[in-house]
């Protein structure tokens, strides 16, 4: 091999061949392995990469074109007690590959140590000499360049995010050709886009689409990792989500279709760990390239695991920072995405704060990345850092989630409350958490991929994760849910009615709070996971839905019952209300200060008597109702009535200082399709059913 350009890592196509470059600081030698089909079988040809610039091994090979399958074999010492696990018998995935070919076979040969079964049981200290090339995915040479992209460029104040799984979003959509359902192609289908647009979505946040693998222990239970939080190639689209043999082009097309409809695309990215698991996991890439360089270790050769997944990627190391930055730019410049949600973001730095993190600093300093949306999940299994990220980062706000659930459900389940201060703080933008950064720093949600769906949190008190095969030990036991007195589905009409009102009221709270709302896929149509709050796995294969597939809850239902259709209409109505009256005033924190021109506040809280709340009201731990007024513009405002008590409650509307007429534009206790708005005058008495909410449009001429 001739010398290559060591400045660009990965496989780079040139006019006459391809440059190859890989980072390994501690290796003794590196071989590039090409795989070509001859007489129906893959034949491996090895090339020594003898050229080295510091830790970067590189070489140019003439004649290599896009589509070439390849991998690496890395030579070096085997010293597991020091965290060193080189094994040239194992074919390794290029960390910079943009496409993978072939599936992982769960056999002993995929492990660097001598394993005796598919899960890796065996002697962790003894190096295995069996070749893994026939059992692991191969890297593929591609030649996709940065491209011109027409982006919607939506401001944070206008954002409504929809979190979804590529397969689950469209798998049951009969308007899409069968072979395209559950694929990248289906994301751009007119019916998919029409549904998202109908509920006001401005950004589709996809669960991980980088190539991922199922953990051997899960595969051994006859299941696969459905969610995909187990990446093996950070910058390669998962080929299992493609309807064609070209996942990159297919994904680019889908992104362009969404952009044309005014919808941005945000990727959930997992840079905190890889699919190689703990020290007993398979050797597929980083573990064999430079184990100590790519994973965090203690002083005894053991992994430091702050992710709960067996390893922690050493994302603060310079070469890792470079790789992550390069990966993010590839997804932006080549695929066309508009932002990222970082899984377990605090695991990506070892410093005491995100403010002095090397990776956060590199992202903020990059001339491209700093212009795109960045969202943190501000915790890992050892650290909790909500509010600790620098502007312009946004953060998943679990305090918001917990306060909304507690107000509407948790207090009822436990039999006592603690007043309304927490729900008021969350609805108004969580200023006590985000201070100067503004309310759009808060990604508000009441449900996400992990946890109960909206339907299940009013149907179950206890999780049901038995299908995962972990004896129901997985998933959180703290759900702040309330089953309304009966565990599971119920034919009791009174219970069904309360549950329905609760779902609509919680959606109203979410959609009309200050901050950036995020909907969990299917909550707009009452999707259920059969009581699972950790539906991360599915059977390796299945032909019909059953309890093992959470009764189909892994996918969005498109055939709706009357109740589900009303929930859908609720979200459609609420998103329009938000867009019309709140989006323009939600970019800054409310002040609660009286405007000297209008003599009104931009936000105000009222007691049941229609007067502004006093300190005594705020201190009342038994208070189960609250009214909030938000000034939309000089002539209009919104008044939101929330009653989480067990009894019908009479609310008094504010006086004429706040509005001359009041018009109820949403009532959680009424069917949206047939609801006729009610007009009322200042100081009118309004009876609000238990576990319900209303939204009033306040109008005035002054």
TrEMBL record:
This is Unannotated protein. The keyword Ribonucleoprotein does not apply. Keywords: Glycosidase, Hydrolase. Pfam families: Alpha-amylase, CBM_48. It comes from freshwater metagenome. Belongs to the glycosyl hydrolase 13 family. Residues 186-578 form the Glycosyl hydrolase family 13 catalytic domain. GO terms for biological process: glycogen catabolic process. The keyword Hydrolase applies. InterPro entries: GH (IPR017853), GH13_cat_dom (IPR006047), GlgX_Isoamylase_N_E_set (IPR044505), Glyco_hydro_13_N (IPR004193), Glyco_hydro_b (IPR013780), Glycogen_debranch_GlgX (IPR011837), Ig-like_fold (IPR013783), Ig_E-set (IPR014756). GO terms for molecular function: amylo-alpha-1,6-glucosidase activity.
